Prior knowledge:
alpha/beta, 7 strands, 51% helix
Amino acid sequence: MLVNMKSLITGASSGIGRDMARELSRKGYDLVLVARDEKKLNELSIELKQKYKINIQVILMDLSIEENCKELHKKVSDIDILINNAGFGDCGNFTKTDLNKELKMIKTNITAYHILTKLYLIDMKAKNKGNILNVASIAGFMPGPLMATYYSTKAYIVRLSEAIREELKKEKSNVHISILCPGPIKTNFNNVANVRFHMREAESPVVARYAIKKLLKNKFYIIPGIDVKMGIFFSHFVPSSLIAKITYMVQKKKIEK
Length: 257
């Protein structure tokens, strides 16, 4: 078991965030769990404290609010692992989806990641140690008609993280950044995004276990599943216009009537 190692996880109340919290607690990490659902956070905290005897701090916070992200960094300033996981999606024709929901999505999926990555990266570089995991998606590697805003937010996270990785490599830093790029996962994401996936959905605990294993080995691209790996690989060789056509047809079948 590890001693005095701490991880901060956003979007920790359910889905893959909750399961990554379970994986890290099993390895002895103290946790800072951040989300908006007080009941679920407290239930998870009680579960993990009883099972693993670790220290857990629960913080109720809406990270779509910029000042909250800065306040979180002030509250929790010394961590070993940052997992940016909070986020959601939406599905539909771009002219028909709700603008306010999309703006909140951008603030949650991009702005919060950007602020927390920057602030905690500065801290980690000063100590010359630490890990950041940004939860992206296979969506970050391709255009996403009918989920245009969500795909675009994940593309931002992929490119931002790739750029930071190169900067850290040139500096020969002992700080590492990673991106988790799964395909569909069985979580509450589908309900929020108003979609049903017709391709195989991965089990959240399996993805979480794989993600933490690779994160602790300082892997940059963390891509669970051979089908997802193949999809990302071929996206580099197929014209974007063709990918957009294929994605449109797939997304159209997912929209709940």
